[in-house]
């Protein structure tokens, strides 16, 4: 039997009698522009917006902008921008077709259309998932790095920008000129105080172009902080094939996720926003406690799992967490070292949250790859592990597990796992790391001292702290000499 199946589209759905969302038939207008159209957005903000459209209607569809590649457009365009969201848990799967995206624009092909679209009177909200490095911040200070080559480009050629900040500034300049309203600009990336940092970075950028624009943006736009959570591995060819086997159609834009989802948004808007709070999101006055909780418990554990797991040649998070010693290490990293740094309302059951995270990591249907999470460590570590380490030092508490996680990153950067397989290092600072490792010539102590002296990543107080330096060096030596598992077992 041939395995040819029709690609998902409005027509295919009609001929197969596959139900589409009711709102899709009316083709509501877009009110949101989203920058960074990856799997995470499709399984998170687009899904919340889909639920708003289903329950309340409104012109809240999303125009998605890909800042780099044309993949998302190629996947979505022939499908009338429809895609399947598959929720996986153990052996159970649930599928839903999402029609919240109205159009995809590939920024490098038509930068002027991106600017016009954000500047349009019908746009009220811009959301972003551009990953940590997309903000062009110095990781240690969290401020815009004006020397970043793409920022330099965008300051010199403001009408054909490359970065999200460049597009926002160009579009806001038009809104100002045309006397349009400001925008709610909502960062949905895993960065502490994401809205505050985005605001400061954009104002600094605008200041360079035109101080009057910076003033206008400050007065008219709002940058709520938000905490986003849903584990969404990159869709693999295997996922796409399985879906094709199990469904009546083929869907090359499908995304695969877990049942859990959370979105906490600072209630600080420039104008109308979709009623996301009526479909599961929470509007709060201060996101910081939730953000710290998620970054230091979920994401910090994820990074520890990714570096240790990749070095031990584990493919996925669930395989790693199935090992009792490793699970115990992650449970303790959360409970003993990360949790005490948080200040949540007393009524919040943090222990239950930690247990739930261990269960989410164990979801074997997700096949979340360690190597995927391992990328961009230079951008992730300062948001995830370093705040734990600093708090523990300031409070004179032990932090050997956090140090072990950082040492695992440094071991990972050696580029070879414990079975001898080489893998590429995917990180904007990878060239710097190569220099450091080459110069250190295999000496753990030299690796640690030089890496900790990279001020883009490590605050000076950590570099100067003899205890931290010794602890990380000891772990790196132990990992290299005994292997990760034996080194952790020896500590117990
Ligand atoms: C992960 C996150 O890839 C990573 O760095 O830690 O994408 C994580 O899956 C999400 O933040 C979960 O909400």
From TrEMBL:
Keyword annotations: Oxidoreductase
Pfam families listed in its UniProt record: Mannitol_dh (PF01232), Mannitol_dh_C (PF08125)
GO MF annotation, one: oxidoreductase activity, acting on the CH-OH group of donors, NAD or NADP as acceptor
InterPro entries hit by this protein: 6-PGluconate_DH-like_C_sf, 6PGD_dom2, Mannitol_DH, Mannitol_DH/Oxidoreductase, Mannitol_DH_C, Mannitol_DH_N, NAD(P)-bd_dom_sf
Residues in Mannitol dehydrogenase C-terminal domain copies: 286-477
Record has Oxidoreductase as a keyword: yes
Keyword tRNA processing: no
Domain Mannitol dehydrogenase N-terminal: 31-278
Domain of life: Bacteria
Record protein name field: Mannitol dehydrogenase family protein
Organism: Spongiibacter pelagi
């Amino acid at each position: 039997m041939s395995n040819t199946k029709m690609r998902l589209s409005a027509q295919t759905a009609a001929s197969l009698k596959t139900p589409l969302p009711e709102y899709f038939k009316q083709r509501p207008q877009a009110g949101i522009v989203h920058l960074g159209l990856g799997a995470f957005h499709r399984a998170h903000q687009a899904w919340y917006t889909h639920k708003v459209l289903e329950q309340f209607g409104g012109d809240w569809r999303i125009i998605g902008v890909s800042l780099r590649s044309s993949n998302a457009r190629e996947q979505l365009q022939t499908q009338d921008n429809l895609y399947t969201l598959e929720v996986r848990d153990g052996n159970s799967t649930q599928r839903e077709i999402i029609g919240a995206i109205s159009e995809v624009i590939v920024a490098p092909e038509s930068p002027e259309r991106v600017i016009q679209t954000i500047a349009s009177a019908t746009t009220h909200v811009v959301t972003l998932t551009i990953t940590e490095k997309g903000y062009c911040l110095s990781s240690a200070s969290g401020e815009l790095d004006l020397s970043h080559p793409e920022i330099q480009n965008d300051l010199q050629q403001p009408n054909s920008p490359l970065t999200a900040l460049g597009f926002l500034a160009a579009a806001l300049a038009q809104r100002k000129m045309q006397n349009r309203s400001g925008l709610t600009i909502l960062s949905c990336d895993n960065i502490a105080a994401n809205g505050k940092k985005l605001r400061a970075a954009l104002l600094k950028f605008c200041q360079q172009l035109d101080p009057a624009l910076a003033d206008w943006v400050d007065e008219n736009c709002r940058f709520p902080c938000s905490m986003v959570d849903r584990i969404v591995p990159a869709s693999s060819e295997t996922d796409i094939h399985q879906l094709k086997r199990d469904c009546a159609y083929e869907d090359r834009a499908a995304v695969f996720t877990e049942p859990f989802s959370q979105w906490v948004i600072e209630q600080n808007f420039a104008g109308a926003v979709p009623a996301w709070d009526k479909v599961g999101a929470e509007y709060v006055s201060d996101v910081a406690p939730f953000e710290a909780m998620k970054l230091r418990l979920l994401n910090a554990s994820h990074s520890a799992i990714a570096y240790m797991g990749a070095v031990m040649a584990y493919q996925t998070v669930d395989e790693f967490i199935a090992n009792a010693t490793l699970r115990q290490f992650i449970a303790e990293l959360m409970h003993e070292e990360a949790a005490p740094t948080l200040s949540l309302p007393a009524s919040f059951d943090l222990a239950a949250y930690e247990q739930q995270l261990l269960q989410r990591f164990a979801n074997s249907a997700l096949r979340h790859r360690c190597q995927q999470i391992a990328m961009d460590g230079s951008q992730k570590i300062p948001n995830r592990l370093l705040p734990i380490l600093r708090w523990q030092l300031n409070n004179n508490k032990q932090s050997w597990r956090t140090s072990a996680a950082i040492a695992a990153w440094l071991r990972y950067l050696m580029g070879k796992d414990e079975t001898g397989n080489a893998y590429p290092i995917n990180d904007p600072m990878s060239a710097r790391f190569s220099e450091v490792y080459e110069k250190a010539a295999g000496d753990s102590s030299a690796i640690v001292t030089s890496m900790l002296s990279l001020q883009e990543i490590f605050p000076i107080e950590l570099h100067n702290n003899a205890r931290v330096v010794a602890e990380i060096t000891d772990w790196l030596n132990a990992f290299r000499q005994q292997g990760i598992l034996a080194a952790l077992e020896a500590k117990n």
